Amino acid sequence: MTIIKHKNNHIKPQSMKRCIKSSIAAVLIASMLSACSNLAIDHSVCDLRVLSLQIPRQSQDVVQYAGSLTVDNLKNSQEKFNQALAMVHKKYANHSGMDKMLKDGEAINANIDLLVKHKSSIIAIQDLNIIIQDTILDIQAEYNLLTDQMIRANYPSAQAIISKNQASIADRFARSMKKISEGDENVVYNIEDFWSDLDTFDTYLQAQLKGNAELGIERVKDAEMRQSLQSIQEDYAKILEHHEALDLLKKRDTLVAIYQATRENLTKSDEIFNSLSKLESNTQ
């Protein structure tokens, strides 16, 4: 009998850190918008500074929600960003650091173009995550019920252990999928974890339904227990219907590029924000 082992996650969730950064950015944006209303302020610099705070948040919104509104917001900010950057360049063309600011701007533009281009891919991943999160509780409930049924019917303990482990495995691939859909920086590890758990789940589900001599698992014959397994199989089939998203997870290069573009928009925007501060201090 092959034993299903629990495996540790590679990296702890970064949700709290992202939430804190987002809250800080929101406060900064509000403060900057208020400052930009001052007539004595250089509005091109001020606008560029505000946009350098908005674009990373909007890039993350596209990855997490991928709706038309989030994409339109990012494209509108891109247009304003390029206008403000052109005005700053015109005014401060000879100042130190301007060339780097332009290169950072080019990188941000390329990243935004990539996110817009792959909107359908992002939507496919979000749709897959939604169906997994919607079905996972039902899958776990059926497996927990099946475990109880096996124990009451004095089924071999190995069969009951498999059913109990299947509920845990389902929870793990659901958590991995959630991290992937959020653009977690450890996307490669999350994808590897997802496929490892999904493949294990599928192997043992099929073994319970059909039997597997190599694994030493007999086909579950009890009618009531098979009803639980068939319900699980129906929910699992809903996951497998999302071919585009599963193909993206297999090839993964596109997803890695999408999430890298999102993270780079944060770092490049930070660099532009800092460059603007230096530029202003050098011209005072």
Q: Can you characterise this structure?
A:
This protein is an all-alpha fold. Helices cover 81% and strands 0% of the residues. It contains ten helices and no strands. The radius of gyration is 25 Å and the shape is rod-shaped. The model is unreliable at 1-22 (pLDDT under 50).
Write the layout of secondary structure elements.
Blueprint: H1 15-36, H2 43-65, H3 68-92, H4 98-117, H5 119-152, H6 157-181, H7 187-210, H8 223-240, H9 243-251, H10 253-283
Short note summarizing the structure:
The protein is an all-alpha fold.
Shape: rod-shaped
> What is the number of beta strands?
0
User: Which class best fits the helix and strand makeup?
Assistant: mainly alpha
Largest sheet: none
Please estimate the helix content: over 70%
Q: What is the succession of H and E elements?
A: HHHHHHHHHH
What are the low-pLDDT stretches, counting only 5+ consecutive residues below 50? 1-22
| Average pLDDT | 87
Oligomer: single chain
Rg of Cα set: 25 Å
Task: Classify the beta-strand content into a percent band.
Answer: under 5%
Number of helices: 10
**First CA to last CA: what distance?**
75 Å
List keywords for this structure.
single chain; 284 residues; mainly alpha; 10 helices; disordered N terminus
